[in-house]
Amino acid sequence: MAHLGLGAFHRAHQAWYTDRADDAWGIAAFTGRSAAAATALAGQDGVYTVIERAAGGDTATLVQSIVAAHDGADERAWRTVLSSPAVSVLTLTVTEAGYHATASGDLDTSDPSVRSDIAALVSGEAARTAPGRVVDGLRARRDAGAGPIAVVSCDNLPGNGSVAERVVRGVARLVDPSLDEWVARNVSFVSTMVDRITPRTTHDDRAVAEGLTGVADAVPVVTEPFSEWVLSGDFPAGRPPWERAGARFVDDVEPYERRKLWLLNAGHSLLAYRGRLLGYDTVADAAGPLADELELHWDEARPLLPLDAAEIDEALGALRQRFANPRIRHVLTQIAADGSFKLPVRVVEPLRRRLAADLPPGHAQLGVLAAWSTYLVRFGATDDASRGLADALRGMLDARARSAAVLRALDAPEELLDPLATRITELERL
């Protein structure tokens, strides 16, 4: 396997599943930006500690599935790995913004980073964006005659496999139309739903890892005991038997994506914006005081989920335990980042579906958008796309004007204008 995006989540999730599934499979992993993780892991022969932090204590496992750790800027190593016929799977951990896609899921050719990558690839130079780097690797694979491969997206974007295919083929088509044709025949794009809360590792966690294993580890990963991985798609050159480690293979991953996005991820956004406004720092801190709002939010999403009641009840029971775990320090400012990209799929889409089903807009769902607007005024932008909005909102005293600005920024239905303005006014009074 190859992997792009060597961060904590990959090591707590896909690498952990691979280690538990079959030790015949190894991962050549590449960082997304900084080389620090690759340097540290290379110094440990790729071995690291996963600390599972439950309310009652910690357990630790040494994970050995990463057999090579590379600086993502090392394009020669990237091309060499992807051109090997022994590599049959490429997994990706990319943020929603990292796809460089439009709202419709196509490649954003107006993005300067995308245009720069296309020019670089045409001239044989290294790409910088995730779609560009995948195209660079796939071109090396085609030229080496290394055969088919599966690209597996592991992130919170709905239909991530489809979006990955569209942006990758969009780059390939502009670089070399024959490469796009090769990708169409030889590359599958697998959609997945991934779930495991993985907070940032602290200095104290390194001491905990050594105390539990007796091994010094510069880059341990702390995560919760819960994990979930649901996959849908073809693997034309084979794959690890991840089902041995608990992964599920399904015909359609969309119901599970919705469940995660509209229950867990939307719940996190609610806690991040409302919680920070109330002075809380972590999910566990905010989950108790905002429990009623969370439950209302889940009730509003529930009728939109194409799953049976028992599965939804089980998921919500797990979420209540996970959110309340006092030993997982999941920082709200971390969750609050990239609101412009997260809120359309986490909150706006279920609101849109409620309207389509002749249901009233969710009170708690609107409350997340209202809290985001107030968060922008008080704490500043959550991403580059919201900088102008944050500045504009500070100059708006009228709730209706603020509501209109938020809806435009999130491409949300105009029917939400008045009820959102009401929620903004209510929030301002708290």
What does this structure look like?
With 430 residues, the chain is of the alpha/beta class. It has 2 domains: 2-252, NAD(P)-binding Rossmann-like Domain (Rossmann fold), CATH 3.40.50.720; 255-429, Orthogonal Bundle (N-(1-d-carboxylethyl)-l-norvaline Dehydrogenase, domain 2). It is 51% helix and 13% strand. The chain is built from 19 helices and 11 strands. The strands form 2 sheets. Strands 5-2-1-6-7-8-10-11 form an 8-stranded mixed beta sheet. The chain has a 3-stranded mixed beta sheet with strand order 4-3-9, sandwiched between helices. The longest helix has 24 residues, at 254-277. It is globular. The mean pLDDT is 96.
Secondary-structure topology with pairs:
Layout: E1 2-4, H1 8-12, H2 14-21, E2 27-30, H3 36-42, E3 48-54, E4 57-63, E5 66-70, H4 75-82, E6 89-92, H5 112-122, H6 130-144, E7 149-153, H7 160-175, H8 177-186, E8 187-195, H9 203-213, E9 221-223, E10 228-232, E11 248-249, H10 254-277, H11 283-287, H12 291-301, H13 309-324, H14 332-336, H15 339-356, H16 363-379, H17 387-394, H18 399-410, H19 417-429
Parallel strand pairs: 1-2, 1-6, 2-5, 3-9, 6-7, 7-8, 10-11
Antiparallel strand pairs: 3-4, 8-10
Helix pairs in contact: 4-6, 5-7, 6-7, 7-8, 10-12, 10-15, 10-16, 15-16, 16-17, 16-19, 18-19
